[in-house]
Design a protein that fits this description.
Layout lengths: L5 E13 L5 E12 L2 E6 L7 E6 L3 E5 L1 E6 L15 H13 L4 H17 L2 E8 L2 H11 L2 E8 L5 H14 L7 E3 L2 E2 L7 H14 L3 E5 L3 H11 L3 H7 L7 E5 L8 H5 L5 E5 L1 H6 L8 H6 L4 E3 L4 H4 L4 H16 L7 H15 L17 E5 L11 H8 L5 E6 L2 E5 L2 E2 L4 H16 L13
Parallel strand pairs: 1-4, 1-5, 6-7, 7-8, 8-9, 8-10, 11-12, 12-13, 13-14
Antiparallel strand pairs: 1-2, 2-3, 5-15, 15-16, 16-17, 17-18
Helix pairs in contact: 2-3, 2-15, 4-5, 12-13, 13-14
Amino acid sequence: MTDSPADLVITGCTVLVHDAQERIGFEENATIVVRDGVIESVTTSPESPPAAEHLDARGQVALPGLVNCHTHAPMVALRGVAEDLPTEEWFNDVVWPIESNLTAKDVELGARLACAEMIRAGVTCFADHYFSMDAVASVVEECGMRAHLGEAYFSSQGPQGREKSLEFALRHRGAAGGRITTALAPHAPYTVDDDDLTATAELAREHGLPVHLHASENRDQAETSLERHGVTPIEVLARTGILDADVLIAHGTGILDRDLPVLAGASGRVAVATAPRGYLKFAWPTTTPVRALHDLGIPVGLATDGAASNNSLDVWESMALTALIQKSTTGDPRWLTSRQALHHATLQSARAVGLGDTLGTLAPGRRADIVLVDLTGPHTQPVHDLAATLVHSARSHDVRTTIVDGRILMRDRELLTVDVAEVVRELGQRMPALLDRSHGKRIQDYDT
């Protein structure tokens, strides 16, 4: 330990910790020391070392920053424009016609508003799968968040779509001082053909890149794929080599029993992102099979999807809903426990985006992505079981301070890196052109 002052010292907090078996625990009256963007120590020593910045966190809980493992951040611009519709109408009649109007400026402003929302909700890292991703990368660099970014593409774009996704991933990998990681981002097996998926898998292995895509999003997609092609979307990923790369699968509520041995036999690292609020809104009959994936050792990270379908980017809500829906669908009140839900929110989410060695736990050597949660409100008192209080009583608005790489992005609920009022003003001016559907175009057809 150096004698020079630390960059940041947080004192007086209760810290969520993981033991050697990754069990969730808590250390009271702890001190976290941060230097050069990394956690140097987590101790219960009464000694507080000198630091350039000090945070008194008495009455607060320090957690690893939340990770939104699958979203389309710029789609906050479409929050509420397509409500109470089945999936096919939602895509074909509203969202994909509107998205044919998207400009890079729309994406930039949407991403800026989304980052503000996530910072305020304790999200320090997000995995984004969208278009005009240069604009999103620029926003991430400016606002101080961490992000795992992929330029989405369809086979209808021709080879240029895949090439653009690769070019983006290679150019931005390691950007923003290492806060940006990248992935290849084919949209889904129903919009990207086998040849493109096979080529993508080869590019992923050649360049050491992961793949982030939608697959078996719902049961209809799985059944339609079986009827038309004789294989499930997961089996498509296997035969095209995608499962031989590191892959993050969005949703997976249509994963069937026959898919489980296929996933278990994957030679790449497989993870699944679950965004339960949207599944409820679309009235999908199934949810992500978290328990079956757990039994295979496949991490399930928490996500929100885009705000056009989910209406919020609140990962805290995703954590609570995941726990509740798992109890309901398995018929077992002992699953998912609050501590298991916190494991999904921390280490499993970090692993899902390929950052399990650097994020997900507050321990020496990990990046200093930290949120401080105030539990002094009446809705979180008294505390009999801290894990249960965090999952089922606390809400994202209880996050008081958000820190990424040791930099404070929100202090005492005040955003320090995004001017929300200005973003909302600019975005409002662009709404008429963005929402115009009179042209009759759409960027793709939903037909599954």
